[in-house]
Amino acid sequence: MILSAEALHWSARGVPILRDVSLAVAQGETLGLIGPNGSGKSTLMRLLAGVLRPDAGTVRLGGRPMAAMRRREVAQLLALVEQQAETADRVTVRDAVELGRTPWLSMLRPWSAADDAIVAEALAVVEMAGFAARDWATLSGGERQRAHIARALAQQPRVLLLDEPTNHLDIHHQLSILRLVETLPVTTVVALHDLNQALNCDRLGVMHRGRLVALGRPWEVLTTALLRDVFGVRAAVLTDPTDGARVIRFHAAD
Ligand SMILES: Nc1ncnc2c1ncn2[C@@H]1O[C@H](COP(=O)(O)OP(=O)(O)OP(=O)(O)O)[C@@H](O)[C@H]1O
């Protein structure tokens, strides 16, 4: 398993936020994390990324306890794109994306043309090549989100953690980012609110009140009973006549 969590607990000022969460993500897999607002998705992402330390339990990256790894080692293997992540300094988009190369640079391995190429490629795949010289502060919310993803890609991680990556994006860019996530040769954990988009993940984990209450293949997890009990909605499954794909339509619970 490339990334795993065993019995994670995390509290904020004595209030339990995450309780007894265990999961394992296989190499190359896309695991979707879903759950209502405040259910613990972002907290779990931050624990998996090593940004937060669990009060109890262990996160392993490539089989090794993350707590025993150096920050640089973790950053060479794993990148996190947080929700509403901000870059406060006055920088260009290219500067911000170049930061993704930091874990790979050293006195013996200074910036090179290869790094320029990696940064250019990362900007291109999120359709931001034309924005490289722009001031970060002038970007729209969706352009920032795509530039943050470019920064994470420039890091060339083996594991990519994306917290609501389609937030702020128009429908074209939502679909292109999700397609990118599916096709990237990396292991991905992605928190999503759109349950129809989540259906494309290999597996889904469902957070509810700080616990992981379901984990499995999307159609096995998203039962009408779970949608009612966890999300408080009534669901109807429809079939798209153009390609036979199933989609879920949601109604307020009766
Ligand atoms: N540092 C903190 N101090 C106090 N409470 C916190 C802290 N961090 C998170 N929480 C609380 O923990 C709960 C889980 O938050 P989290 O951000 O993980 O939820 P989420 O599932 O990502 O929600 P959303 O879908 O709204 O983004 C929330 O009730 C939140 O208010």
TrEMBL record:
Gene3D superfamilies the record matches: P-loop containing nucleotide triphosphate hydrolases
Any Pfam family matching the protein: ABC_tran
Superkingdom as given in the UniProt entry: Bacteria
Assigned keywords, A-Z: ATP-binding, Nucleotide-binding, Translocase, Transport
InterPro entries: AAA+_ATPase, ABC_transporter-like_ATP-bd, P-loop_NTPase
Domain named ABC transporter: residues: 3-234
SUPFAM superfamilies to which the protein is assigned, alphabetical: P-loop containing nucleoside triphosphate hydrolases (SSF52540)
Molecular functions per Gene Ontology: ATP binding
Role summary: Part of the ABC transporter complex HmuTUV involved in hemin import. Responsible for energy coupling to the transport system.
Record-given protein name: ABC transporter ATP-binding protein
Protein source organism: Roseomonas haemaphysalidis
